[in-house]
Amino acid sequence: MSVILQVNNLSKQFDTIKAVDDLSFSVNKGDVYGFLGQNGAGKSTTIRMLLTLIRPTSGSIEIFGKQLSTHRHEILSKTGAIIERPDLYKYLSAYHNLAIFAKMSGLKVTRKLIMDQLDMVGLADRSDSKVKTFSQGMKQRLGIAVALVHNPELIMLDEPTNGLDPQGIADMRNLILQLSHSMGKTVIVSSHLLSEIELIANRMLIIHKGKKVAEGAVEELLDPSKTMVLIETSNNNDALGKIGLLHPQWPAVIKGRFIQVNMDKSLVPQLIGELTGMNISIISVQPRHSLEDYFLSLTNADSHVEFIAD
Amino acid sequence: MWSLLQIELFKISRRPRTYIAFIAIAAIVLIFQFAFKADGKSYMNLMLQSVQDSFDMDRSKAINGYFMCYIILNTLLIQVPILVALIAGDAISGEANMGTLRLMLTKPVSRTQVMLVKFMASFIFTIMLLLWMAIMALLVSLLIFGADDMLIFRVKGDESQILQITKDDILWRYFAAFGYAAVALTVIAALALLLSIFAENSIGPIIATVCIVIVCTIISNINVPIIDRNVKPWLFTSYLVGWKGFFYIGTTPEGQPIPGSLENWPAIRNSLYILVAHIGLLLTLSVIIFKRKDILS
Predict the structure, then answer these.
(1) Residue A40 in contact with residue A53, Cβ under 8 Å?
(2) Helix, strand, coil abundance in chain B, percent, nearest 5
(3) Which of A71, A78, B252, B260 is the most exposed place for a label (fewest CB within 10 A)?
(4) A246: which residues sit within 8 A by CB, 6+ positions away?
(5) CB contact under 8 A, A96 and B102
(6) Do the Cβ atoms of A93 and B116 come closer than 8 Å?
(7) Contacts of A255 (CB under 8 A, 6+ apart)
(8) Are strands A3-14 and A186-191 parallel, antiparallel or unpaired?
(9) How do residues B170-217 score in pLDDT, each as one tens digit?
(10) Positive or negative CA dihedral for A254, A260, A262, A267?
(11) Which residues from chain A sit within 8 angstroms of residue B107, using beta carbons?
(12) How buried is B180 (Cβ within 10 angstroms: 0-12 exposed, 13-18 middle, 19+ buried)?
């Protein structure tokens, strides 16, 4: 896989706040690259730096093998983006909005080009309607048409499911998968809806307070050996002591009414057997292996130990 | 660049607020014309009170299309900067407010191009406004009141003067005056555009532009020697009404008007230089600041 985007030691300081701190990562051609973080983690700032909307304080960005700072025009002509909301000219029609941005992308605008693009996102019959009459989902679809009208190789979507209803979210997920699998596009998608990223991304980056917390293939980061199990017992304190004694290699803590154990999911039946054998009643067991738990377990930690899984 | 300018002009033409300025100008001009048609004689009697006996022009002909246009321009060119600020002040801040600025800047267009195009569009809007004023104030006035020699009332030093310009010597002066006004108003557009970079709401730059124009106009009218010498020559507001210079006709030592002449062309030329320098400075600053600006909207 060839690297399409390479970020090295990227930082951005706003007055006293370091929004992005020494961030390095790479995206391969054809990846759906999930960019995860809580609100304020630095995702949008990073994506805006990738699109030259924000000037980095330090670091370098290379896209399509060229420095962004010196090849901005060339790189942006092969890049499409939606940043947060799909804000468009509300007083203009869908047709005119798309025609304006197509022209800005350097295309020779024809009615066929615009109508084909509107048809692709299901808005051909509303081409003459003003955007101010559109629902959030329709605006999002028009935003996608704007981002894709010049057939970009790299697409950056910052929080693309914001404000969408469940059907809209599902449509967006399908579109991203289609862009990657059927059309061979590289997609960078940021979100705090981790379950969405889990479903679409093949690689991901997690950032917290501007710093990289984890980067790698999603399936690696979801390795069963890193599963967290929540166990509710008749006597949690006693059970915690027993687990520490039997399996000191499994970090375990009491969280509310549960004992949280970081262990291999396949060993859960063995643990249950051991605890019941010691007269500890098991009330519930919840193996947690979603990316969200992993994400939360990392970002809730005070220390930031970098984890790389390739 | 041309296609970007086309886009910009298209966007301006589709915004309802663009037409507020044209409607405002038409309304004011029509009110003036109606008032002078109904009772212009009283106004003229008042103005000619001091020279009643010595002035030999037929008073009924004094209120004519050329004279009306001069009166209207005297009033309107003070308010037009607000109308120019309405569009130029919205140029960047309006896009930031709508969220389209970030989308626009992710396209392969340079920020310098965007800023220059915004400036050119504001300039074209200013020209359109002035053309509209020319149609309403000059053409319509000529149709209503007819053409004749024009009287200019002027206070020079401690004395009041009345200048008379023959009707065949007037039209070129209006062309020149409108040209000068275009340069003067373009300074306002460049200022509003600069302020527009700093805001994400168009009200702020529009109000800030108007406030700066008001404060600078007040300073331009303060008669304190130290300000006269050191501040006024550099304030653009000192030159906003310089268009009047085209109606101050040159005279012979005996005080006879010389057709086709100007009393002080070098002063008008220097005013234009200073206004153009202001435009250059404000536009350069706008480009530099906009290129370095982080787009957070």
Answers:
(1) no
(2) 70, 5, 20
(3) B252
(4) A274
(5) no
(6) no
(7) A230
(8) unpaired
(9) 899 999 999 999 999 999 999 999 999 998 888 999 999 999 988 988
(10) positive
(11) 76, 101, 104-105
(12) buried
